[in-house]
Amino acid sequence: IRGNYLDDYAIYHDSMRDELLLEQELINDMELALENREFKLYLQPQCNLATSKIVGAEALVRWQHPEKGLILPGKFIPLFEENHFILKLDNYIWEECCKFLRDWVNGGNVPVPISVNLSRIHLCDSGLYDRLIFLIEKYDISPAWIDLEIMESAYADDTGYLNQIVDRLRNYGFTILLDDFGRGYSSLSTLKDINADALKLDMRFLTEASNNKDKGRDILECVVYMAKRLHMPVLVEGVETKEQVDFLRKINCCYAQGFYYYRPMAAQAFQQLLKNKDLV
Ligand code: C2E
Ligand code: CA
Ligand code: CA
Ligand code: CA
Fold it and tell me: Where is the EAL domain (predicted)?
């Protein structure tokens, strides 16, 4: 028993050490990686549930690391929130979105709205508004083409202050989406206090890790109904199956995003997709 225990301990210890090493390496590499343009803009299409046509996309970052390959944001976003590098990285990603939109519109195309993620770190940073406006003006795009995704947990501390920022951004013309609605512990008060424009709900949150899928579906239906009463469109993400799509149509949900339709893809691939007029 004692031998096993020590083996397990050694394995545990090794993997902890490896993880810490990896985190330290990512932190050491981040500044240079930004300069070398190793962070890539990926876009995941968002669809109209009734027509399956593409109505927009969410910007999701990936790190194309020269030695480690493609790294998903779950591995580095928490680190960069801790050391505030997220402010620089997101600004870079937003600029990539603005460039993408400028390029697309220059080609004579109708703009497609892109939603970007705002970390809670941005919402406590007084420079947020100016940085966003700077990019909008630099690339001469409309704020109507950029939607801002905000997580309710960001509001937990001081709704008064955050509501001010949100109102300012909305007055300028941005659309505000409440991301992962219902996942935090203050969803209803967030909904009441913050002037958001639309809700994003995660299908996986309601169906996975639950021994009662019917209950998850009932909740989803009620949230869609509630949002309708508040004149807020709902986008359900994490949609993976035809069965889920059928259900969402049945409860009159408008928009969906998920592997059932498209996976996140490089910006270039998304542009190719948009050129296929049947899909848009
Ligand atoms: P999120 O904002 O909730 O983004 C949705 C996540 O679900 C993405 O993971 C996406 O790839 C994944 N997803 C979409 N459809 C499906 C599906 O049908 N099935 C499954 N299993 N997954 C699906 P990703 O790209 O790994 O991003 C994870 C999180 O990292 C995001 O969650 C977001 O909170 C954060 N994030 C990603 N990119 C950025 C960024 O540029 N800036 C900031 N601040 N955060 C980001
Ligand atoms: Ca850690
Ligand atoms: Ca999001
Ligand atoms: Ca989400």
Answer: 23-278
